[in-house]
């Protein structure tokens, strides 16, 4: 038996910076989504926030920040334009110290408009990358996040 390793038996060694490559991908995908969703008057980040609020609201700010994996200060900063536009409102919570965040009827309508644009962006990604590659990318991202968080990766069946 030969002790010489063949090219196929040697695991590939990663080349380059993973962080850089991921940021390049995020910028390219983000630009595509921003261009399409931007036609609704929202940035993709605003659409995501408005979607969370529409689905989960009325919700306390601290709970929303946890759901979105962001700090309270980041949430507050990102909420301000949505509140100023009249798409989101703060209402008194169950006690004097808490506020509930919810989408206004105008915010629900804006989300529906932006959601149509988001779907168009997603279809463009699916077309350019191919549906199988998008499914594989989602699975790889989910597994990678789980491993980086120290958990066992789960396998989506959706």
Automatic annotation (TrEMBL):
<protein>
    <submittedName>
        <fullName>MarR family transcriptional regulator</fullName>
    </submittedName>
</protein>
<dbReference type="InterPro" id="IPR036390">
    <property type="entry name" value="WH_DNA-bd_sf"/>
</dbReference>
<dbReference type="GO" id="GO:0006950">
    <property type="term" value="P:response to stress"/>
</dbReference>
<dbReference type="Pfam" id="PF12802">
    <property type="entry name" value="MarR_2"/>
</dbReference>
<dbReference type="GO" id="GO:0003700">
    <property type="term" value="F:DNA-binding transcription factor activity"/>
</dbReference>
<feature type="domain" description="HTH marR-type">
    <location>
        <begin position="15"/>
        <end position="146"/>
    </location>
</feature>
<dbReference type="InterPro" id="IPR036388">
    <property type="entry name" value="WH-like_DNA-bd_sf"/>
</dbReference>
<dbReference type="InterPro" id="IPR039422">
    <property type="entry name" value="MarR/SlyA-like"/>
</dbReference>
<dbReference type="InterPro" id="IPR000835">
    <property type="entry name" value="HTH_MarR-typ"/>
</dbReference>
